[in-house]
Amino acid sequence: MKTFFLVLAAAAALVLQTTVTFYGLSPALTTLVAYYVGISSGAAKGTLFGSLLGMVEDSISGGMIGPNLLGKGMVGLFSSFLSGGPFRWSPLLGTLALFILTVLEGVLVFIVKGVYEALPAPPARAALILALQGALNACAGVLIKPGGAESHD
Questions:
Q1: Is residue 146 part of a domain?
Q2: Full-prediction pTM beyond 0.90?
Q3: Least C-beta-crowded within 10 Å: which of 32, 70, 124, 130?
Q4: What span, in angstroms and rounded, lies between the C-alpha atoms of 83 and 70?
Q5: For residue 148, what pLDDT band results from cuts at 50, 70 and 90?
Q6: How many domains does the chain have?
Q7: Residue 41: closest CA among 2, 15, 11, 12
């Protein structure tokens, strides 16, 4: 049942990401889904689901398959480290992690597309877009937390 809702959330994120804009800026909603799977299900499932989500996103975009596959897989993998180990989840950690992972994923996709295709945007504009997407996603970092984690404010 959880898999059904994750696939539904991924499909909704893909649709909303391509249709909704905030002042001309499209949100990076698929990054949120990959982050959630990684933080709640662990490294293997997070990487697999993020990679599959990125592959679907690449195939829909009509470009080369690989940049989003790599980026979303990275988000699924790195977010899994927040649910255990040396980190103790807090709303601030979730916010910072989502901002950093969104920006890192965007930079990775930008570099790969720039090397193997053409630059998707001028670097200054890309930096602004990635910072704003990171800020939008960071707002959700307070809400998305690992299973069993409680906020210690």
A1: no
A2: yes
A3: 124
A4: 21
A5: low
A6: 1
A7: 2
